[in-house]
Amino acid sequence: MLICCSFFCGFSYNTQKDFIKIDNVSTSASGAILMEAESRRILFAKNENAKMFPASCTKILTTITVIENADLDAVVEVDNRAQGVEGSSVYLRAGEHISVRELLYCLMLQSGNDSAVALACYVSGGTKEFAALMNKTAKKIGTKNSHFANPHGLHNDNHYTTAYDLGLISCYALNNEEFAKIVSTKVIKVSNEGYDYNRVIVNKNKLLTRYEFADGVKTGYTKKAGRCFVGSATQNGMRLVAVVLNCGPMFEDAQSMLSYGFNNYVLVNVIPKHKVYCMDFKGKTLLYRCDFRLNYPIKKDKSEDNLFKTQLSVLKNRKLDLKVTFANKLIFSQQIGII
Asked: What would the pLDDT profile of 231-265 be if each residue is shown by its tens digit?
């Protein structure tokens, strides 16, 4: 049995008193994208598939790769290859001991290139080996036009990504609670073996103090990459991710993009978790429960309210094939077993 119908049943949402309609948003970035983190829907884009250098925004991928491949409470003996790495540093000393978790805070808040090398050596034995693991992680996430040659983002002609790919990586990483906690931290003290005082690590992401909804993610700069930034913010349960590559006013443009998203879009619950479907099949009534939740951002002006459609069909194995489209684009597909 196949059933097709409009999925909209009167979404209820708050348009807020401070709603400001902004039809367009612009940025001076060479490449940019604004995405809703859960659905990955693109709300704004500019040259989003152009290959560019990400500088230290690379460390977003470095961090999630480490989180997925290491015990964060493990203690690292800093490899001598990590001491004196050029660029941003927390001044690690060869042979000192510090936890993986603390190194990740040094990496993401203060952008320590030495921390990146220390982590790469610990997880994979070296930066080249770790870069291979990064590329494997990026491919799993779904990137198509990226290649990473090191864990820190110092310039390499063979180290590049796109605004779209970096957005995907960031959305994926933010879904990890440990990652989200790290990148939303403004300041933290970490160990400093051999000294009677701790290292004070301050987040370089100025959006965290400038924008009340901000909760991440990472800054970056090299001469060839220019100023790069990935910013995230959450309002009313909707998290948005803004990527700007080679952008002078990176904080201002990212905040403008995020505000545009919140002012013009709202996250609606299309399929509640544990929703039950009742289907007739060969004279029998079958019950199905969807254990997945589907949220999706739509325009606040209600112009997109009726663009959802669902298709339900019982397969030969009696599983329910559930598909949801938005503006004729498939956004959800799942086979569900009988309760």
From this structure: 999 999 999 999 999 999 999 999 999 999 999 99
Beta bridge partners of 7: none
CA 189 centroid distance within chain: 25
58 has a pLDDT exceeding 80: yes
The structural domains of the chain, with segments of one domain joined by +, span 2-14+269-336, 31-267
Phi/psi for 65 (5° steps) reads: -65, -40
CA angle 321, 322, 328 (to 5 degrees): 120
User: Is 130 in a helix, a strand, or coil?
Assistant: helix
Terminal Cα distance for the chain, rounded: 18
User: Is there a contact between 142 and 151 (Cβ–Cβ < 8 Å)?
Assistant: no
**Token pair for 299:** 């325009």
Tell me the catalytic residues.
56, 59, 111
Q: What is the pTM for the complete model shown?
A: 0.92
In one-letter notation, the amino acid at residue 98 is I
Coil/strand/helix, residue 319:
coil
CATH superfamily of 31-267: DD-peptidase/beta-lactamase superfamily (3.40.710.10)
H helices present in the chain, as ranges: 58-69, 100-109, 113-124, 127-141, 163-174, 177-183, 207-210, 250-264
- CB count within 10 Å of CB 225 equals 23
Cα(309)–Cα(1) distance, integer angstroms: 17
